[in-house]
Specification:
CATH architecture: Alpha-Beta Barrel
Structural class: alpha/beta
Bound molecules: NADP nicotinamide-adenine-dinucleotide phosphate
Distance between the termini: 29 Å
Strand order of the largest sheet: 3-4-5-6-7-8-9-10
CATH superfamily: NADP-dependent oxidoreductase domain
Length: 321
């Protein structure tokens, strides 16, 4: 595994991290989930990304991860970087959603209980909440770190201007923003112009989520929607209609370049997302150990010729998912 320093911090993250948004809830195959976590760790994937609401049902990915950790990897806690988040709807009423101090701190306490952990390595504000003063959300992160319930603070999905405000606040409070977590893939290039300049300026790392566009940037949808796929799952966040013909046509063309590079489509999409050194790590989500094995192979071929990069740009032509 290759590791990179996360921004200007002393914390190194693996180039590929594992996310537990899908495939780790009570509705999923626990045995496969367990094998994925163990295999990931054996391969040097030290970073596992959670959030309060991952499941389904919400909270169950944290509970399952806690169980896997306790029963298989308990002796290795200090070799791992485990993150969680709060920001989206978690429980009814005014205190289970958003960016209030009340929500962030109570949700973090619940996440610690579910996972059985004493602390998270990284705790994120999962989204910007325009109804809460940003100072309140950031001070909650500062206090969480000062109380030792998390070692570092991060933000996710913040628009560029609010990301600047958040990072300025955290810097002045001497709890610099460790990391920004944002959607980034061939089908979502917004961070290139809008977020990476901010993370670079503030010395924060950047970790990409959904680098495979939830599976669309693999070969799985080239001939329709297979039964075992996120788009076919009723509990998945990828809807059938999002797998648009025009996107699949582009993936077919991209797949030809992948074949020329001796890679699968998934491998190439991941290699491509790592070509910018400001991208600290990619969080992949996997359904099976085999998918994870495939994704790790991306690290064997990270260089692109200018000609291939420009051909990829031409194919993508601003397409977004
Ligand atoms: N901060 C945020 O708001 C936010 C939002 C979303 C995600 N995240 C984080 O980012 C992580 C990753 O997100 P994601 O799951 O959308 O990532 P992704 O890597 O773009 O998509 C994962 C899906 O792609 C398919 N896949 C993966 N590897 C494959 C391979 N080698 N060949 C064929 N198909 C493959 C699988 O789909 P099938 O299930 O169809 O097989 C898998 O479930 C999450 O777990 C979470 O930790 C954060």
């Amino acid at each position: 595994m290759n590791y990179s320093f996360c921004g200007k911090s002393g914390l190194q993250l693996p180039k590929i991290s594992l996310g537990l948004w899908h495939n780790f809830g009570y509705v999923d195959d626990y045995e496969e989930a367990k094998q994925m976590v163990i295999y990931a760790f054996e391969q040097g994937i030290t970073h596992f990304d959670l959030a309060n609401n991952y499941g389904p049902p919400p909270g169950s990915a944290e509970s399952n991860f806690g169980k896997i950790l306790k029963e298989n990897l308990a002796a290795h806690r200090d070799e791992m970087v485990i993150s969680s988040k709060a920001g989206y709807l978690m429980w009814p009423g005014p205190y289970g959603n958003g960016g209030s101090r009340k929500y962030l701190i109570s949700s973090l306490d619940q996440s610690l209980k579910r996972t059985g952990l004493e602390y998270f390595d990284i705790f994120y504000s999962h989204r910007y909440d325009s109804e809460t003063p940003i100072e309140e959300t950031m001070q909650a992160l500062v206090d969480i770190v000062k109380q030792g319930k998390a070692l570092y603070a991060g933000i996710s999905n913040y628009p560029p201007e609010q990301a600047r405000q958040a990072m300025t606040y955290l810097r002045e409070a001497h709890v610099p923003c460790l990391i920004y977590q944002g959607k980034y893939s061939m089908f979502n290039r917004m961070p290139e112009d809008e977020i990476l300049p901010v993370t670079d300026e503030y010395g924060s790392g950047f970790i990409a989520f959904s680098p495979l566009a939830q599976g669309v940037l693999t070969d799985k949808y080239l001939n329709g929607i297979p039964e075992h796929s996120r788009a076919a799952d009723t509990t998945g966040f990828l809807k059938r209609e999002q797998v648009r013909e025009e996107l699949v046509a582009k993936v077919k063309q991209l797949n030809e370049i992948a074949v020329q590079r001796g890679q699968t489509m998934a491998e190439m999409a991941l290699s491509w997302a790592l070509r910018d050194k400001r991208v600290t790590s990619l969080i992949v989500g996997t359904r099976t150990v085999d998918q994870l094995k495939d994704n790790l192979k991306a690290l064997e071929n990270l260089s692109f010729s200018e000609e291939k990069l420009s051909r990829i740009d031409t194919i993508l032509d601003g397409a977004t998912l």
